[in-house]
Amino acid sequence: MEYLPYGSDVKFVNGGGNKPPFLEHIDYIDRQITLAATGGLLTMLAESGSGTLAGNAHSDTFLQIARGDAALLSGLFQEQFDTPLLREYFPDQPILAYFEFAPPAADEVSRVVKDAVELAKAGVRIDLRELEEKTGYKLAPFEM
């Protein structure tokens, strides 16, 4: 092993002045992790508080990710639980039931309610339980 002679100058590499070393690299890795976790959606990298458009982009991106995760989990539940149990308990029957994480979208709920109103005007009633399921609302008949 070789030692420096006593009193010799030892020079240290400065990490970039006043900035911590590797800060840019850490930021880059953070962005890459964010992109990987969000499926490559750059809107998640917008700074919060940068305006309504950025806030909406964050919200939309979150919903896209949540819907994707919900679809993936629903498929796994179907594959791992629903199908095996239904085959076991109803061996000679076609599989018609399934599990799904599917919260109704706001515009979908609005469309269902408008359809129900139009059908009521035409003299057709929709089952209250079915309407509750499709809208997510707890409904009760209107009493006068």
Please give a quick description of this structure.
About 55% of the residues lie in helices and about 0% in strands.
Number of strands: 0
- Helix segment tally: 4
Give the termini separation: 97 Å
How much is the radius of gyration in Å?
29 Å
From the spread of the alpha carbons, the general shape counts as elongated
Give the tally of structural domains.
Answer: 2
**SS-derived structural category:** mainly alpha
Portion of residues in helices? 40-55%
For the residues shown, what is the average pLDDT?
Answer: 76
Strand content: under 5%
Low-pLDDT residue spans: none
Chain-wise SSE layout:
Blueprint (H helix, E strand, L loop, with lengths): L22 H15 L14 H38 L16 H16 L6 H8 L9
Key words describing this protein structure:
single chain; mainly alpha; 144 residues; 2 domains; elongated; 4 helices
Q: Could you characterize what this model shows?
A:
- With 144 residues, the chain is an all-alpha fold.
- The protein has 2 domains: 23-103, no CATH class; 104-144, no CATH class.
- Helix content is 53%, strand content 0%.
- The longest helix is centred in the middle third of the chain and has 38 residues, at 52-89.
- The chain is elongated and about 100 Å long.
- 0% of the residues are buried.
